Amino acid sequence: MMNNIVNNLERKIGKYAIPNLTMKLIICYIIGYIIYYIPGLGGMLNYMSLDAYQILHGQVWRLVSWILIPPVSSNLFFTVITLVFYYSIGTTMEQVWGSARYNLFIFSGLILTILGEFLTVGIFYLVHPESANPANFAAMAASFSMYYVNMSILLAFAATFPENVILFMFVIPVKMKWLGVIYGVWLAAEAFINLMQGSFWAFFPVAASLLNFGLFWLLGGRGLHLRPGEIKRRAEYRRQVSRVNRESTHMTPKGIAKHKCAICGQTELDNPDLEFRFCSKCNGNYEYCQEHLFTHQHKQ
Question: Which long-range contacts (CB under 8 A, 24 or more apart) does 207-210 make?
C-alpha cells in the first residue's frame, strides 16, 4: 500500500524528472564555493540564504538561491573530497532508484527544509515577539542549508548498501550501515539537544532531514537493502525497459497494446492508469502490471 503511493508519484512525475540531478546540485555547490572564496563576493551569500522573513518581504528568489550555498565551507582539499563523495553516493542512488524516485527524494527534502524555515519564523514570532527582527531571523536562517539534505542522502545510501565498506578518514574501513547508524544517532542527538536548549531554529533543519529519510524508509522500503546481484538485475531491467519503449514507439501500430501483464493479461488499453514493469528477478522479458509486480512467482 505505502510502496504504491511512491510508485504512483513516480509515474506522475517521471516525465518531469531531472536526469543526473546530483551533477546539477554539485554544479550549484561549485558556484556557491566560487562566490564564497572570491574576495568581495562572499557577502552575496547573505542575500541567497533561506530567510523566510526576507522572502515574506519580497525577496522570493531565496526560495531557490539557498541551494547554491555550499553544504560545508572547510579548506579546499576537503571541499573537493566532499563534492566527490556526494557525487558518488548521489549518482549511485539515482541509478538504483531511478531518476523519478531520486528526484522525489531530493525535492521532498528541499520542501521539508523550506517548510521548517517558515515554521521557525512563525514560532519565533509567537514565542519571542520582542526579538522578532531581521538580524535574528538572518542568524536563524544560517541553520538551513543543503548540508542536512545531503545527510539524508547519506542515510539512504547506508540503508541501501549496508555492507559496503568505505575508508573513513582514508584509513579506517567502516561498513556503511555503521556509518549510517553513527550519523543517524548524531543527527537525532543534535536535534534533541537543540530542542531542549530552546534552539528550535536549529532543530527544524535536522528534523526535516530525518523526516525525509524516514518517509522514504516507510514508503519505499522495497528499494532498500539491495545486494550487488539485485543492483545488476535492476540495471538490466532499466535497459530492457528503455529498449522496449524505443521499439514500441517506432513499431507498435495505433490501437495495439505496448504492454501486457504476464499474469492477468491486462494492457494499457484496458486501463490507461495501470503501471507496467519488467521484473528484474525473472529470467526473460516478463512484464507485469502494478497489481502483480510484487506478488507473482519469479520465472527461473
Answer: 207/116, 208/109, 208/112, 208/113, 208/115, 208/116, 208/148, 209/109, 209/113, 209/148, 209/149, 209/151, 209/152, 209/155, 210/152, 210/184
- Helices and strands, number each (H, E), in the chain: 11, 4
Q: Are strands 287-289 and 276-278 parallel, antiparallel or unpaired?
A: antiparallel
Q: What's the predicted TM-score (pTM) here?
A: 0.70
| Rounded-to-10 torsion of CA 153, 159, 161, 165 | 90
Domains in the chain, start-ordered, CATH in brackets? 2-223 (1.20.1540), 228-289 (no CATH)
16-63 pLDDT tens trace: 888 889 999 999 988 988 888 888 777 788 889 899 999 999 999 999
**How far is Cα 8 from Cα 99, in angstroms, rounded to an integer?**
14
